[in-house]
Amino acid sequence: MPSQGQALLVESVRKLLRRNAERNLIKILRRAHPADIAAVLRQLEDRDVLRLFQLVPDIEERGEILAEADPGIALSILESLADEDIVEIIEGMNGDDAADILELLPEQRASAIIGALEDEDATYVDTLLGYAPDSAGGIMSPDVFALPRRTTVREAIETLQASHEELEMAFYLYVVNEHGHLVGVCSLRQLVVSAPDATLDEIMETDVTSVTTDTDQEVVAKLVARYNYLAIPVTDDANRLVGIVTVDDVIDVIKEEATEDMLMMAGAGGDIDNAQSAFASARLRMPWLLASFFGGLGSMVIIRVFEATLLQVAALAAFIPITLGMGGNVGTQAATLVTRGIALGKVNTEQFVAVIGREVATGALLGAIYGVVLALVASLVYADAAAVTSWHAWQLAATVSLGVAACMVIAAFVGGAFPLLFERLGIDPAIAAGPFVTTSVDILGITIYFMIGSLLLL
Amino acid sequence: MPSQGQALLVESVRKLLRRNAERNLIKILRRAHPADIAAVLRQLEDRDVLRLFQLVPDIEERGEILAEADPGIALSILESLADEDIVEIIEGMNGDDAADILELLPEQRASAIIGALEDEDATYVDTLLGYAPDSAGGIMSPDVFALPRRTTVREAIETLQASHEELEMAFYLYVVNEHGHLVGVCSLRQLVVSAPDATLDEIMETDVTSVTTDTDQEVVAKLVARYNYLAIPVTDDANRLVGIVTVDDVIDVIKEEATEDMLMMAGAGGDIDNAQSAFASARLRMPWLLASFFGGLGSMVIIRVFEATLLQVAALAAFIPITLGMGGNVGTQAATLVTRGIALGKVNTEQFVAVIGREVATGALLGAIYGVVLALVASLVYADAAAVTSWHAWQLAATVSLGVAACMVIAAFVGGAFPLLFERLGIDPAIAAGPFVTTSVDILGITIYFMIGSLLLL
C-alpha cells in the first residue's frame, strides 16, 4: 500500500487516536497488514506508537508488527513492555524474527526473557543468537520443511497437510539422510505431479546449492539473485540442514547492502539511519569527516607553498572552487560507476587496466570540452586582467583551462583506481568511493593547478 | 557461484578457448548454469564471446544466456547472428525475456524478426513491447497459471501435471471468472492440502493484491518487498489477468533502482554502465557536470567580489578547500540519508521540519567540533601571520573556524532540504542529492566565509 493508500491509513489512525476511538482503531488494526501498521508507526509520536501497539488485538500480529518495524521503534516499544508480555509475543513469532527482536535488547534483559521461554523456543533462539547477524545463520529461518529420503510422496503430502502455518514459505521440500545431511530437494510442484508411491529420493533433484551458517549474507543474496531461487538451504559445520534463507530475507539484504554502500560513498559510515538523534548521528558521522579534514589541511599547506604566486595573481583563487568542483564531480562519477560495477559483479580487479583506461579517456574528453569553455569564460570575465593582476588575460585563461582539465583527468584516474585497489586489498570499495576520492582530488588538483600557474608566471 | 568458483570457470574457459578444445568447452557449457555463462562472457574478448556462444549446444540455453547477459554483450551477439537464428532462439524463450531481447535491436530488424515468429509468439511479444519497459507490463511474464473459479482441486492438479515447464515459477494458482477477471488466488500448498472435489472458489483467497500493466516497476517492487510476495498478478485496463511479476524480476528492479539512485547522487545521470566506450560515457556524463560548472562560475564571481579582502589576507585562499570540502561532505551525508530514507519509505515530505531540524542540529554539532579544531590548527600554522598578512593569527583563526562551522550548518540544511523539496515537486530526489547540493554549498559557503573575513577586517 505504498504512497496514497498509506497516507490515508496514517491520517485515519491519527484522527482516531485524537478522538480516542479505540473500537474503530481495533477494527483498522484487524484489517491492515502488519507491514502497513509498522509503516504507520514511523509517522506517529512516541506516545501514540505505544498506544496503538497496545490496541493490537492479536498476539501473533503484535509479533509481526515488531518484526516489520524499524529497529528504533521496535526497541522503544519493547522498553515499555513487561518481560512477560515480551515472552508471550516471542513465543508466537518465527524463530529468526524472535532472535532479531532479542538482539535489540540489552544482553541481561534478553537472557532473562530467553530463560522464561518454553524449552524448544529457547533452544531455537539461543542457537540463532550465536550466529553473526550478517551471516546466513543470522538471517535464516530454522523452520524448514525437511523429510527423510525414503518418505513416499503420499506421506510427504500428508505431513504437509498436518503441518501448521509455521513453515515459513514452504515451496521446496528438502530431503535429508539418516544423519540429517541435506541430500536433495523437491519443489511442491514436483510433489503434486508425482506418483503417490514414489519415494522422495526417486523424484528429488540431487544438485542442491546450499550455504553454511557462516556464509556472508551478501554471498547468500548474490546466489539467490543470480539463480532466481526462492530459498536456499543452510547447513551447519557437520553438514546438517539447520535452516533456510528465503527470498524475502534476501530482498532485505539487498536493500540493506545498497543503503550501506550509499552511506559509505557519502562519507557517512554505513551504520546511521534516519531515526537517530542529532547527537547520535553526529557521533557516528564525525570520524568519517576526518578524511575531508586532513585532506583540507593538505590543500591548505599546498596553497601556502604557492602564496607568492597567489599574491601576484589573486584571480587564481577565484578558480579554485570550479577546478576542485569539476574534478570532484568527475572523480565521484568514476568511483561510483566502478564501485557499483564491483558490487553487481560487472567489474573485477583483473580488469584494472581496461577500467582505468576507459575512465581516464572519459575524463580527458570531458576535461578538454569543459577546459575550452572555461578558457573562453575566463578571457571574457578577466578581459581587464591587467587591472587586477600582473598577468594578461590569456595567461589566466590558459592556467585555469589547463588546470581544470588536468584535475578532471587526475580525478577520473583516482576515482577509477581507488575502489579497485581497496577491493584488491579486501576493503569495502564503497569506503574508497567517498571522501577519499574527493579529498585526494582536492590535493592533487590544487597542486597541479598552482604548478601550471607558477610555470606561466615565469 | 560468486567469486572463487566464478574465477575458476573463467580461467578454464579461457584456457580451453586458447587450445580450441571445443569438446571440453561444450561439456562445460552443458554443465554450467546460464547465469554463470553470462557472467563469463563479461570477461572475454568480443571475438571469444561469439565463439563461446556459438558452441552452446542447446537452443533454449542460448536464450537463457542471452536473457542473463549484460545488454551490451547480448546486443553484440545478436548483431552477429542471422535473423533465422534469432527467431529460433526467441521461440524457445519466455515471453518477457524475448521482448527484452527484441528491445535491444533496431526497430526495423525487430519487426522483421517478429514477423517471422509463430503467430502465438508474435502476439505475445508484440503486446509486451507495447508496454513501457519500466512498468509492470514491461517486466511481467505473460505465462500465468490461471483457471476458472468452478474448477475442482482435482482438475487443477491434473492441469498442473499436464502443463509443461513453461509456467514460470508457478507457486500461486490464480482464479478468474468468465470474463477473465481476477477473482482469487490459491497457493500450491492450499491446493495440495484441500479435498479433491472442492472447487477453487471454495478454497481461494479473495483478497488479492494486483497491479495494472502501467503501474511503475518501483511501486511493484515496493509491494512485493513490503508484503513478502513471491509474485504479483498484473491486470489490463479491462481488469483481465494478463501476467505476473515474479520476485526474481523484483530483485532485478530493486538493484536497478539502487544503481540508478547511486549514479544520480554521483552526478552521473542514471543511464550509464560499465560497458560503454569512453566516448559514449563522456557524452552521457557531460550534461550532468553542468551543475558543477555553473556553480563553480558562481563561486568565481563571488570570490571576485571579495578580491580586495583576498589581496589583504592572501591566507584566506588557503582555507577555501577545507571549508568547501567539509561543507560538501556534511551536505552529501545529509542528502544521502534523506534520499535513501525517502526511497525506503522511512522519510516523507510531511516530516520536513523534523528532518531538517535534526540535520541542522547534527551539522551544528559537527561544525562546532571541527571549527574549534581548525581554529587551533590555523593559529599554530599562521602564528607568524603578521609576516604574510596584515592580520593577527586570531583573526584568521576566528574567520576560518566560523567559516567552516557556518558552511557545515548551511550544508546540512541544503542537503536535508533539497531532496525533500524535489520529492514534493515530483522530481527524483536522487538528482537533488548530487552536484546540486555540493554546488549550492560551494556558493553559499564561499559567500559566508568571505563575509565573515570582511567583517573581521574592518
Average pLDDT of chain A, rounded to a whole number, is 89
Biggest sheet details of chain A:
3 strands, mixed
From the spread of the alpha carbons, the general shape of chain A counts as elongated
What proportion strand of chain A?
Answer: 5-15%
Low-confidence stretches of chain A: none
Specify the structural class of chain A. mainly alpha
| Total strands of chain A | 6
Largest interface comes to:
A-B, 122 and 122 residues
Question: What does it look like?
Answer:
The structure is a homodimer of 458-residue chains. The first copy, chain A, is mainly alpha-helical and 458 residues long. In chain A, 68% of the residues lie in helices and 6% in strands. Chain A contains 25 helices and six strands. In chain A, helix 8 crosses helix 10 and helix 15 (217-227) crosses helix 16 (247-265). The radius of gyration of chain A is 30 Å and the shape is elongated. Chain A starts with a helix and ends with a helix.
